[in-house]
Amino acid sequence: MVNHIRAGQQLGNYRLVQRLGAGGFAEVYLGEHRYLKRQVAIKVLLVSLAGDDKESERFLSEAQTMAALKHPHIIGCLDFGIEYTIPYIVMDYASGGTLRDLHPEGDLVPLETVVAYVEQIADALQYAHDQGVIHLDVKPENMLMGEGGDILLSDFGLARFTRSVSKRVTSLIGTISYMAPEYIQRRPQATSDQYSLAMVAYEWLTGVRPFDGDDERIVAGQQLQTLPPSLRDFVPTLPAAVDEVIRASLAKKPEERYPRIGEFARALSLAADSGVDEEFDLVPVPPETLYSQGLQAKGQGKLEQAKQLLEELKFRAPAFRADVVQAQLEQIDEALQPQLLARYRDQAEAANREGQWDQEIDAWNNFLQAGPPPLDASEARARLRLAREHQRNAHLYQDAAHMIADNNTHGAKELLLQLYAKDTYYGDPLGLGKKIKVKVPPTYQQEQARRRKEEARQDRQDEAEARAADRRDFIEEAYGEQLGKPWLVWISWFVFLWSVGATIGALTQSWLWALVALVVSAAGSWGLGYRKALVAVPLAIGISLPLFRQAVGLWPDLGCSDRSGGLGCGVFPQASLRQAQRESSCLRLQRHLSGLFLASSASTETGGVPLRCPFGLDCSGRRNHELRILVGRGVPRIVDWPGLRL
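RESULT FIELD:
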């Protein structure tokens, strides 16, 4: 049902004086308050709420939201109500008329004026968007001239209100020539107002609307599919940057416009002030570019920049790869959490040292919002309670500082003592205690540092005792009670290493290989552990001693042979020395050296090898007979034995 309203009718405390204008879904009347005699503008919606309590409540709720909008560039909402099932809204009366009256269709508006209009209207719309209100009918007819030349935007949300309160309204509410494509598709959003405002600016600068006609279906199709022509096609003198900014706000996809309408107004202002006929980088970044830049920043480790880019992408294009973007943001938040926690903690500690309790409270709140681990969160809440207590008692400390400045040390001392009695951990940010000889209790940080230091000392002591106990247990388990003594352990260790080195050295007759064997056996037994190494000690000794005895028997290399029942020592050719090493007479020489009878040798054969005098014999004398003996130590050394004296 459509309401039939006429001048002279009374709605609530207001009398309708005359009709000022009419639109597709409302009529505007000049009204007067019944008692205050104040002139107002009354907008009467051309729908009826008869018998629909639910819709009436919805309208009243929406009207309350609109009445809560308080902004210098929004027409004030004074009252609203429902009279005879007729919904109406009472607003301030702007006697300057509308911008459509000031700039009729076809007029060209100077660029500076357009920028001023857009800045004021965008400011109002941005405020409304922040409050969750969308206008949905931005056009010159809804822009009023207030006192002092200010622009006042009216009819906030009325198009949305009308659609909500009447299911019988099947056509779109608004002006199709300024309507955003997503609004035509029944999916309006905040950027729809940006599109409409850009359409108004396009009309002011060129004198034409890019999409216009009598057939709304054709205009709606153009809004959905056709790109608007360049403004410079109509006004070649316009800066290219202005053309780019306006056409960017007329993008068909909402995510390709500016994220906020305030950014559109700022970009237009910068483009107009440039005065340079070239393209500026003032247009919004496409979602694909934001996505790639965000991933690139993440790959480079610039996590905060990546988060900013992806959050802007999520705000501008919620449907653009929503799952992937959300997963990337969660990964970035997880990686950034330690850095954020450390930053907020540092901020809180710095504020605490300076006595800036408000800043410390904010820092700890941010710390808790960042999702710290349970233990850190518990500590942060405790610090937050202390900071709030410090904030309540800060006046005592400040008064004490003023008293010290006035040389009232006695009063300052009493205040500080009173403060520390109430707030032990307050501290002394300004060093007042030193000036008036007041002992300042340790702060919470100092107390915690002392406690951590004591705990660390106790932990070190406990660890040392635990290591000593482990060593005792290990020795007792590995070596038993008899082998538990350190001296026996080290003796066994020495015997083991000596046996290995001696065996290898005897077999190879090389000190180098003996040293290598010692190092390898020491490293290997160390890696196996004392217990395994010492288990092998008896076996190693049992094997190495026989080998060692046999090897020692091979060391003296004597050119000896048993001739005519006696022991004759002569000179052998070089080739026969190895054979002589295996003769048993050499061993008999060692055992019966004191009763040794040396037979003479007629002459020295060619190829004999002179040897050093062995076994401590006095060889200083010289005889006609020569004894040549080979003595080996490691690698055998063959030297001369010029004589023998027993």
